[in-house]
Design goal:
Blueprint (H helix, E strand, L loop, with lengths): L1 E6 L7 H20 L3 E6 L11 H18 L7 E4 L5 H10 L4 H5 L2 H7 L8 H16 L4 E3 L5 H18 L8 E3 L34 H9 L19 H14 L3 H8 L4 H24 L1
Bound molecules: adenosine-5'-diphosphate and tryptophan.
């Protein structure tokens, strides 16, 4: 078993990154070590070159993200934590795989379409080629499992397609096919301001996300102001249909407690949002304040 995942060193870690990916990295590193496997986690600094940043900002973002991962529990005695640019083979394998990947495959990537928007001609070539570099990251180490949030599923399917074609073209089993490991409960945490948009560091409104560096008051304020609707909480998950914001808050509570949304609703069904939000903020502070203290300390 070989586990690998990466994150771009840009901006702060937020609750979506934590529940969707990083918490799983930390859990898997223990499981994998117990089974004699290996875990590799890296800062995707080559990927971050698809966007412009000054040299200083890039350097600061790299050290901040490394500190945040260590604060979340990535332990260098159990996992290898590194930055991608230090291993030239990532860029080299990307170039080799560029011969295998097809333009049509990359054109279908939703992250490319979202990030390039209408101005495709003005987007960097690196942004277009981003998924091939990601395939190289994974295939380079014969990775078996890749813990990521739901939004990365399509990129991992592409990595598998590239591996299958490369193996077929060369007539040899050169690459292992990787499996994404996506947490069922927290695959996609949504913005606190808009239940249709994912929580993201690129959202201009800081009120849309909980950052791992937010203090208790900030967390309480963001949760209190999170968008909801006038109805009380339902007693069953079916009652969350068409109520994206309510569903998101219940999902967050369920993920924090490792229980089902139904179990959360069995406790809070019929309650107004006020008391539920207060309980959620308290639960978030319990989970995040030790991380924040390690990060700042
Ligand atoms: P962002 O979208 O904020 O820029 P990244 O793309 O750097 O975040 O994602 C890093 C990791 O966190 C990936 O594994 C991604 O799938 C996961 N992730 C990001 N946002 C969310 C979210 N809202 N819910 C669940 N997982 C997420
Ligand atoms: N594209 C991923 C993201 O935006 C980061 C990443 C780069 C990655 N290379 C990877 C994730 C390899 C898993 C495996 O979050």
């Amino acid at each position: 078993m070989r586990v690998l995942s990466g994150i771009q060193p840009t901006g702060n870690l937020h609750l979506g990154n934590y529940l969707g990916a990083i918490r799983n990295w930390v859990r898997m590193q223990d499981e994998v070590a117990a089974k004699g496997g290996q875990s590799l986690y890296f800062l995707a600094d080559l990927h971050s070159l698809s966007d412009h940043m000054t040299r200083e900002a890039r350097r600061d973002a790299l050290t901040d993200m490394a500190a945040a991962l260590v604060a979340c529990g990535i332990d260098s005695t159990k996992s290898v934590l590194f930055n991608q640019a230090r291993v030239p083979a990532h860029a080299e394998l990307c170039w080799l795989l560029n011969g295998t990947a097809r333009m049509g495959w990359l054109n279908r990537m939703t992250q490319w379409k979202d990030k390039a928007g209408k101005n495709r001609d003005g987007a960097s070539v690196a942004l277009f080629d981003y998924p091939v570099l990601q395939a190289a990251d994974v295939l380079l180490y014969q990775t078996t499992h890749v813990p990521v949030g739901d939004d990365q599923k399509q990129h991992l399917e592409l990595a598998r397609d590239i591996a299958v074609k490369f193996n077929a073209d060369t007539g040899r089993e050169v690459f292992t096919l990787p499996e994404p490991t996506i947490p069922p409960a927290a695959a996609r945490i949504m913005s606190l301001r808009d239940g249709q948009a994912k929580m993201s560091k690129s959202d201009p409104s800081d009120m849309s996300r909980i950052n791992l560096t937010d203090d208790a008051d900030t967390i309480a304020q963001k949760v209190r102001k999170a968008k909801t609707d006038p109805e009380p909480l339902p007693s069953e998950v079916a009652g969350l249909e068409g109520r994206a914001e309510a569903k998101n808050l219940v999902t967050i509570m369920a993920a924090l407690d490792d229980r089902s949304a139904d179990a959360v609703l069995a406790e809070y069904g019929g309650s107004q949002f006020g008391p539920f939000k207060a309980a959620l903020a308290e639960r978030l502070v319990v989970e995040l304040s030790p991380i924040r203290e390690r990060y700042l300390g």
